[in-house]
Write a structure and sequence with these properties.
Chain lengths: ~850, ~650
């Protein structure tokens, strides 16, 4: 019977099971000639009502049958697991008829119980149940005394699920041959189902004989043990188990048997087990087909092995990462650097690159554009190596400003603003985790519903920000000395940026780091051609450090080596104490190299000190782009043009620049335009220019911006609109320098001095001078002296020679002589203030000082209106 | 082409003997080429499986490598996948390389208790240049064998074990026993042992895999791949078997040569003669009689070795002795044993095998090799070996007793035959089966003779009776088996052929054995073709008239006409090439036709279903409706000449 079914299964193997993907594919529809039988599913091994039927296979789209493909016979469809066999209807029908008729023919030719059983098995196998019943009756009449036939038929019916039909056949077989094992087993099974366990056990007695289980199938004994255990007859179970173990010792290692016996032993509370000790070989632990050992333990071993490999892999990965780190090297110096780690071979970096390195402490030596040596600690936590992506950056000279941002992504635009950390002047940067290094983060990321936000770490260079701003921001940070590092790197790359040199020098002095600045600057003195801004910075710091004499001798020595070097002639002139000698050297410099602007600029500066704007303008005419030479040269050039009657030129240039630009950036062009217009006597055009400039700014910005408020004060001052200044002067209003100048200009000194919030501006030497003048104009001599003394103290703080001299003049009770005034080198603004103060303080020489002050008071920037009022 | 390839693979698989002979012919006198070719063929299979494991390991390793060295979100997935693949690879490699060593009961001999034996073994080892033995054991079988037990499964690191059957030592003289030991040590010399063992390991590994593949496939994919795998195995496995077989046989000659060099050719030949004769005596007399006792005695004999010694001391019956001598001298080399036959082995030693039977059945050894080699320890070793046998045989002994008890009781139920009983072939056959089950072959013989007289076509009875007679070298047995072979399609033909082949091998009738083998091959090929031929009936098949006898036709027509719905019936038989005696009929039936001359498919199907149980034609029958799924076939049947019966 089983063989016959196998042949059917073999025939059905070639058929393809229906399959649909998203409703498209093949599907069975329709059921005809349905047959049911109670049996055991050959796939899921569960007892079920198995169904066989004819159907048709369709090609379906969205489960709608469109094209009929084949007619099929579905065999043994299990309602529990839905698995089944399928066969083409023609194949099924042909096989059914040919096999059954052939078997019947064999029986007809050779009628015997064996051939009868074979024919009957084919009939059951092909579900020809009616014919099988009829055939059964015929052969039982033909062989009435054959116990083999009765038992064989019963066994076939049992397997086909016809339990009730099989029972009388077993009974009859047993009656015919009481010792027949098949009959005894068949009847015993019925007795077990009828819960007549004692009777069943008696019938299975032949299996309890020594050696019987080696001859007969032990399945009925297993079944008997199961029913006995279910009915609580555990002692009998153990007795049978002992017999089974004696007969089949290997069963003792079968995990299911052990578990079964263990259950009965537990129920009886036996202290001793009938089971042999468990012996499991190594292979059993990995062989799922082995009946030995626990299945859970087997899974444990396999999963454990898998986990062990996984853990080993993770450990290897961790170690691999520890040994294969990379340090980013960002060279922002503009020249190649050589980076050597731990005394190894140096690697050249022109711009950016990486260095392979293992985690640990390393000594970095950088040569080339900069000479640096420092230790770095490249380290990540053991677990962080899996979860984090750390970055280490070597930044030679700290030249590249870096920013590390924490970017938040959240749904519905609810993301928090990015938190940005600027790293300026840091030669080595270690970040524990970076998602996006030197690449822009994505505009959007997917935030799953379980999270409210996604946070990403970004590392990138700071771009779009002027280096001066970066420098000044860093100065105000918690580590201002980093600004010097950044500034030094920047200056190495931009040695002609005189404005930045000024900034650097002032900062170095302000941070009390003149020695550092001198050390840095000294390195570039030998460079040829001579970089004048570099030397100017060196001289400035040297002078502020009180080394003027040393500077003079140093440059004397340089000039001796290169006596015709125009740059050195200029630089030498800057440190010579004698102003006349200095002027001669400036002239020699212009003669030695007329294309060198610095000598001309020095001469123009000298002319401006005297208010000789025409000569000043002439000197500037030798310079190609005078406004770009230094930070102050543009302003001086503007004054020279105003003073020499070239205001229209200034106006045209400023209007052109304003037309090209927009927004706040054009503010620096608006002020010279106002100067030019007002100098030309065009106040209406000046107001129009201000209105036009205002209109191009966003209204919200004008309403809310504090920066705009500051600028507004400046514009009002330029236009002389003090009424607007007063209206916008709440008690806790802005602390604008323009406000101070305006109050001083209008003589509201008392109001000014009551504003404690403005007091912090009073440390400025120029403001104190202005207040002193204002007090004198108001007849408050004592207060004027006091403020003059404060001004002198402010100049004292500056260690320059000229500042010291100005402080001395301010303390002197005598008016400054012409020689003293000429011997001083100071800005036109300071000189104008000093002249105004002297004119007010020494009425006898008012005319002389007023003339100088008027010459210098060209721009409407402070202290224009104070000087106007003082000299009026 | 596909059919031809399949037929070739079937022929290869079933024509093992021819393959062995071909290999033997091709590599005769070329042992190194044989070794190289065997290694190549075996290695090919090994490489195929190795490729699978390497593929797994390579894919797993690559995933693992990238998982370890790359960075990104997917690396943990890569490592996990790599770990899973490597785990599967490791587990499968262990399962592949694992060679289960079944524990076998044996008595280990020590140098202290048997110094003579070990001294002799050392001398033989030196003379043959064999590898050192790690273990020497005795058992109860009439045999000696040397083997390598791999400590590391497939990967080797072997232990050399010599196993000597105590009965063998009892039967041989000391010189003969030393010749046998020299033969076994010869297997370990010249290093053919190592190569042979490597081949043996591969062979066992393959065997396990073949066993795995012989199980029903569990998945759809496995089911689809199965034909491919089976095709490869059908081609490869017989080839491997054949080469290994020939190689092993060549090793036997080498070992014989080593033995003759060590002990002399005549001593070796005498030992071979005695073993051949004694083996037949033991297999046909001692063990059957001993196990016969299990039918009546539930207790396992206490001292089987002593019983064996007593058995040896008794002279055999003259007829039996003559028969065994003839059989030992005449038997041919077969393909069930790697050992060549006695005649060929002796001839290879340069001696004439025909002279040995003149000396009669070999005499009992006195003193025996057991007494000489084991000395005072013999009694203890003998008892302990018997105890081991008793333990090993206990289960089978009891099983045999238990089964015999049941059969006895059933036999008793049948009772003494009555006249009516004796005329019933079924009862006679049942009785014969019971007697055979009880091991009472002599008592079963008259019952079988009575049965075949009563029913000469009873294949099973003819087979059993014929085989019994042939086992006694009684040529009459062949006539009973020939009855089976005379039928074209009897299912007992393979068994009958096997029995006849064994007989012809035993009596040295090579041509007879060859003829029977060819008959068997022809039958197997025909059966395979017949199975295919009878599986389907298609419109493209050729048909011929039904050729039914008049009575059969009348009976059929009557049954057909009894169904009122039948309008017409057409009967033909399929033209069959194989076993045409078993006919295959196709009956096309039709219900009433419509205006267009067509019948209703549903009504036709109902008619077919009604008719099928009623019809009894002399052969396989396919009943089809004129309309419906078989309409094309029905059209062909209806168009055949003289096919209309109703």
């Amino acid at each position: 019977m089983r063989d016959h079914f196998r042949s059917l299964v073999a025939l059905s193997r070639g058929t393809t099971m229906p399959i649909t993907v998203n409703g498209i594919g093949t599907h069975y529809y329709g059921k005809r000639n349905r047959e049911f039988r109670q049996g055991v599913c050959r796939h899921c091994r569960s007892a079920a009502k198995l169904e066989s039927y004819e159907t048709r296979l369709w090609f379906v789209v969205f489960f709608i049958p469109l094209i009929p493909l084949h007619r099929k016979r579905i065999l043994e469809y299990c309602p529990r697991c839905s698995r089944h066999y399928a066969m083409g209807i023609q194949t099924w029908e042909t096989q059914r008829q040919l096999n059954v008729s052939a078997a019947k023919d064999r029986f007809r030719e050779n009628p015997s119980p064996e051939t009868a059983l074979e024919a009957h098995a084919w009939m059951l196998g092909f579900h020809v149940y009616d014919e099988a019943t009829q055939f059964r009756e015929e052969i039982l009449q033909q062989f009435p005394a054959s116990a083999t036939l009765n038992a064989g038929l019963a066994s076939q019916l049992d397997q086909a699920g016809f339990y009730a039909e099989a029972t009388p056949l077993y009974e009859r077989a047993l009656a015919l041959s009481p010792e027949m094992p098949e009959a005894r087993v068949g009847v015993a099974t019925r007795r077990m189902n009828e819960k007549k366990h004692a009777e069943a056990r008696q019938l299975l007695d032949h299996l309890m004989q020594p050696g019987a289980l080696r001859v007969f199938n032990a399945g009925p004994i297993d079944q008997l043990m199961t029913v006995l255990q279910r009915s609580g007859q555990h002692e009998e179970v153990l007795e049978i188990a002992r017999h089974v173990l004696t007969e089949l010792p290997d069963v003792g290692q079968d995990r299911k048997f052990r578990k079964f016996v263990g259950k009965s032993e537990t129920a009886l509370g036996s202290s001793e087990s009938v089971l042999p000790p468990s012996s499991v070989s190594f292979k059993d632990w990995i062989d799922f087909k082995s009946p030995r050992g626990s299945l859970g333990a087997r899974w444990g071993v396999v999963v454990g092995l898998c986990l062990a490999i996984l853990v080993a892999g993770l450990a290897i990965q961790n170690e691999y990462r520890r040994r294969h780190r990379r340090i980013d090297v960002l060279n922002g110096l503009g020249k190649p650097v050589l980076v050597a780690l731990d005394g190894g071979a140096p690697v050249e970096f022109k711009q950016a690159g990486t260095l392979p390195v293992a985690e640990g402490r390393h000594h970095v030596r950088i040569t080339g554009a900069v000479e640096e040596e420092f230790d770095v600690d490249v380290h990540a936590g053991y677990f962080q190596r899996w979860t984090y992506s750390p970055r280490w950056v070597i930044n030679p000279g700290g030249a590249v400003p870096l920013q590390n941002s924490t970017v938040h992504y959240a749904p519905n635009n609810a993301a928090r603003s990015p938190k940005v950390r600027i790293h300026v002047g840091e030669r080595f940067l270690a970040l524990p985790h970076v998602d996006y290094a030197f690449e822009p983060p994505p505009a959007t990321v997917t935030v799953d519903s379980m999270r409210s936000e996604v946070v990403k770490e970004v590392l990138d260079q700071v771009t779009g920000v002027p280096p001066e701003s970066i420098f000044q921001t860093t100065v105000q940070s918690s580590n201002p000395k980093n600004a010097l590092t950044y500034g030094e790197a920047f200056l190495l790359r931009n040695p002609n940026n005189a404005a930045f040199f000024d900034l650097y020098c002032k900062t170095a002095i302000g941070l009390n780091e003149p020695d550092r600045a001198l050390r840095f600057l000294k390195k570039g003195l030998a460079e040829r051609p001579v970089c004048i801004p570099w030397h100017r910075a060196y001289q400035e710091v040297g002078e502020l450090a009180g080394n003027r004499a040393a500077l003079e001798s140093q440059y004397e020595g340089m000039l001796k080596q290169e006596p015709s070097n125009a740059a050195l002639l200029y630089l030498k002139a800057r440190v010579v104490p004698d102003r006349k000698r200095a002027k001669d050297l400036f002239k020699q410099s212009t003669l030695a190299d007329p294309s060198l602007p610095w000598g001309w600029y020095a001469l123009a500066y000298t002319d401006a000190e005297r208010g000789d704007w025409k000569s000043c303008f002439d000197m500037f005419s030798h310079i190609a782009k005078p406004e770009q030479l230094t930070e102050d040269s543009g302003e001086l050039y503007e004054f020279a043009r105003l003073g020499s009657g070239k205001a229209a030129l200034v106006e045209a240039e400023c209007r052109q620049r304003l037309a090209m630009g927009r927004g706040l950036d054009t503010f620096s062009d608006l002020l010279p335009l106002l100067d030019a217009l007002l100098f030309e006597g065009k106040p209406r055009e000046a107001k129009e220019a201000v209105t036009h400039w205002n209109n191009q700014l966003p209204p919200d910005f004008r309403k809310n911006s504090k920066v705009y408020n500051q600028l507004e004060f400046v514009l009002w001052y330029y236009l002389g609109d003090f009424e607007s200044i007063r209206k916008s002067l709440p008690a806790n209003g802005p602390t604008s320098a323009a406000l101070v100048s305006a109050l001083v200009a209008t003589g509201e000194t008392e109001t000014l001095l009551k504003r404690t919030d403005l007091a912090k501006l009073f440390g400025n030497s120029e403001f104190t001078l202005d207040i002193s003048v204002s007090c004198l104009l108001a007849g408050k001599q004592a207060e004027a002296d006091s403020w003059r003394e404060r001004a002198a103290q402010a100049f004292d703080k500056s260690k320059g020679r000229d500042a010291q001299r100005i402080a001395a003049l301010l303390r002197s009770k005598d008016p400054p002589t012409d020689e003293e005034m000429e011997d001083l080198s100071m800005t036109t603004s300071t000189r104008c203030r000093l002249a105004t103060l002297s004119a007010v303080r020494f009425p006898k020489q008012k005319e002389k000082f007023s003339a100088l002050a008027k010459k210098l008071n060209l721009s409407r920037r402070p202290p224009y209106y104070l000087v106007e009022r003082a000299l009026r | 082409v596909k059919r031809r390839v399949r037929a070739k693979s079937v022929r290869l698989a079933k024509n093992f003997e021819a393959l062995v002979e071909r290999v033997e012919r091709r590599y005769a006198g070329k042992p190194w080429r044989l070794r190289a070719k065997t290694a190549l063929i075996v290695g090919f299979g090994f490489a195929a499986f190795l490729f699978w494991f390497l593929l797994l390991a390579a894919i797993g390793g690559v995933l693992f490598f990238f998982g370890v060295t790359l960075e990104g979100d997917a690396i943990f997935v890569l490592i996990a996948l790599g770990a899973i693949l490597l785990t599967i690879g490791i587990i499968q490699t262990i399962q592949f390389a694992w060679i289960p060593i079944e524990p076998e009961a044996a008595r280990i001999l020590s140098r202290e208790e048997t110094p003579v034996l070990f001294e002799c073994l050392e001398r033989i080892q030196r003379e043959t240049g064999a590898a050192r033995l790690d273990c020497v054991e005795t058992r109860w079988d009439f045999n000696a064998a040397v083997s390598e037990i791999p400590r590391l499964g497939f990967f080797g690191w072997p232990r050399h074990r010599l196993r000597i059957g105590l009965p063998l030592l009892e039967a041989l003289t000391p010189h003969e026993a030393l010749a046998v030991l020299a033969h076994e040590m010869g297997h370990l010399s010249a290093r053919h042992g190592r190569f042979g063992m490597w081949i043996y390991r591969l062979h066992r590994t393959w065997g396990r895999l073949i066993n795995e593949f012989s199980k029903p496939p569990a998945t759809q994919t496995a089911r689809r791949l199965r034909p491919l795998v089976v095709g490869v195995i059908n081609w490869y496995w017989p080839l491997v078997q054949a080469y290994i077989f020939v190689l092993s046989r060549a090793h036997e000659y080498v070992a014989d040569r080593a033995s003759s060099e060590c002990m002399g050719a005549s001593v070796t030949a005498n030992a071979l003669w005695k073993i051949a004769c004694m083996h037949l005596r033991i297999e046909q007399k001692f063990w059957p009689e001993l196990w016969q006792r299990a039918a009546t005695d539930p207790h396992v004999p206490e001292d089987v070795v002593s019983e064996f010694v007593r058995f040896l001391r008794e002279a055999p019956a003259p007829d039996d002795a003559r028969r065994w001598c003839e059989q030992a001298a005449q038997s041919l080399t077969d393909h069930a044993d790697t050992h060549p036959c006695f005649a060929e082995r002796v001839r290879a030693l340069g001696l004439a095998p025909e002279e040995f039977p003149h000396g009669g059945f070999p005499r009992n050894a006195n003193p025996s090799a057991a007494e000489f080699l084991l000395g005072e320890s013999l009694a203890r070793v003998s008892l302990e070996t018997s105890a081991l046998w008793r333990e090993a045989a206990k289960g089978d002994w009891q099983a045999r007793y238990s089964h015999a008890a049941i059969v006895q009781r059933q036999f008793a139920a049948i009772g003494p035959g009555t006249t009516a009983d004796e005329s019933s072939p079924e009862l006679l056959w049942e009785k014969a089966q019971k007697l055979l089950a009880l091991g009472q072959t002599e008592e079963a013989e008259p019952v079988l003779r009575q049965l075949v007289t009563l029913k000469p076509t009873h294949s099973a009875a003819n087979f059993v009776l014929g085989k019994q007679l042939l086992d006694r070298l009684d040529a009459d047995g062949a006539s009973y088996l020939q009855r089976i072979l005379n039928t074209e399609d009897d299912e007992m033909i393979p068994q009958a052929c096997a029995a006849l082949t064994s007989y012809f091998q035993a009596v040295g009738h090579a041509e007879g054995a060859q003829t029977v083998r060819q008959r068997l091959h022809g039958y197997q090929l025909d059966m395979e073709s017949a199975r295919k031929e009878r599986t389907q009936v298609r419109p493209g098949d050729s048909f011929r008239p039904h050729e039914l006898a008049a009575t059969e036709l009348n009976e059929l027509v009557t049954k057909l006409r009894a169904d009122a719905a039948l309008e017409g019936a057409w009967l033909v038989q399929k033209h069959l090439r194989y076993f045409p005696r078993r006919r295959l009929f196709v009956l096309a039936v039709r219900t009433a036709v419509n205006t267009w001359g067509r019948s209703n498919a549903a009504l036709d199907a109902q008619l077919v279903n009604r008719l099928i149980p009623k019809l009894k034609l002399p052969g396989s029958t396919l009943v089809i409706g004129a309309a419906g799924p078989f309409r094309k076939l029905a059209k062909k049947v209806m168009a055949s000449d003289d096919s209309r019966v109703v």
